[in-house]
Amino acid sequence: MLKVMIVEDEDIVRDDIKHLIDRQSNGFVITAEARNGGEGLRFFQEHHPDIIITRLCWRLLCRLRMLYPGEGLFAYRG
After folding, report:
1. In angstroms, rounded to a whole number, what is the distance separating the alpha carbons of residues 3 and 56?
2. Cβ–Cβ < 8 Å for 5, 47
3. How many domains in the chain?
4. Helices 58-67 and 37-47, packing angle to 10 deg
5. Which run of H or E residues covers position 40?
6. What domain range is 20 assigned to?
7. What pLDDT is recorded for position 27?
8. How far apart are CA 8 and CA 4, in angstroms?
9. Potential cystine with 7: which of 12, 19, 34, 51 (Cβ 3.0-4.6 Å)?
10. 3-class SS at 25?
11. 11-69 pLDDT, tens per residue?
């Protein structure tokens, strides 16, 4: 199972992403949901996800890339 973390401040968008993953799980499990970048960094260090799904936020992306350069990251614009 690949562990997935969702970082999204809008509840409805976070829920939509979660439902898409749940319906088509194919080996994915959601281990953390964060409402902002600070929470995302903290949850990342606690849960060590394999994949991070987040809205394009340069500060968060840069921090994660510097701290954990080998992790899977999917960023979207919204």
Report:
1. 20
2. yes
3. 1
4. 20
5. helix 37-47
6. 2-76
7. 87
8. 13
9. 34
10. coil
11. 999 999 999 887 776 888 999 999 987 888 899 889 988 888 887 666 666 666 656 66
